[in-house]
Amino acid sequence: MHMIKVYNDYMSIDDMTTLYTQAVTATYEIGWDDTSTIENRQYPCLHHDYDRTNLGEFMHYFYDTPELQNYTYEKAVINLVTPSSVNFRHTHGDSRVICYYINPEWREEWYGETIFYKDNGQDDLVISYRPNKAVIFDGNHPHSIRPASFIAPSYRFTLSVFFNKKLKNSS
Asked: How high is the pLDDT of residue 171?
């Protein structure tokens, strides 16, 4: 059974606004393939490797989240998705992932949901994209992004922060 936990109003409005400003002004790279299938590599994602220095002011949110208590920080990425983006079902190995929805305004008719799949490929759970929402999940749970509609804003931003299971001390 895969763990998925949703938190609404995850950050303060001030921190959400700061993170949004950073996302809008960040420099993005082409890459970050959602899948290892060679035919799908013609649809690369846009991402920004989010420096831990910038993330520092937000780390207390993660440290205070029960589902991350036995995990250590690995890396953080801001993902940028446009209405024409193509996204594929993928996983993130043994990581525990927090996906934070950055946009301060988002309407239901703009789509952009995160879809989690059962092992048989059927939809398991659809999480609506809502401002200031965080979704924490096991990285080995197959998931994807439903593309934003053509009436949505040009950019859908998410902060993905990856954590590894803490190693137990051996004495």
From this structure: 46
* CATH label of the domain that carries residue 17: 2.60.120.620
Distance CA 80, CA 45 (A): 7
In the chain the beta strands, taken as DSSP E runs, fall at 4-7, 29-31, 45-49, 71-81, 96-101, 114-117, 123-127, 134-138, 143-145, 156-165
Alpha-carbon distance of 66 to 63, in angstroms, equals 8
Give the integer Cα–Cα distance in Å for 116 and 136: 12
In terms of pLDDT, which residue wins out, 56 or 105?
Answer: 105
Residue 133 tokens, joined:
């929402």
Give yes or no for a contact between 139 and 95, defined as CB atoms under 8 angstroms apart.
Answer: yes
Instruction: Examine residue 170 and state whether it is found in any structural domain, yes or no.
Output: no
- Choose between 148 and 41: higher pLDDT: 148
Per DSSP, the residues of 54-96 read: HHGGGHHHHHT-GGGTTEEEEEEEEEEE-TT-----B--TT-E
Range of the domain at 129: 4-165
Instruction: Specify the pTM.
Output: 0.88
Read off the pLDDT of residues 56-67 as tens digits, 9 standing for 90 and up.
Answer: 889 999 989 999
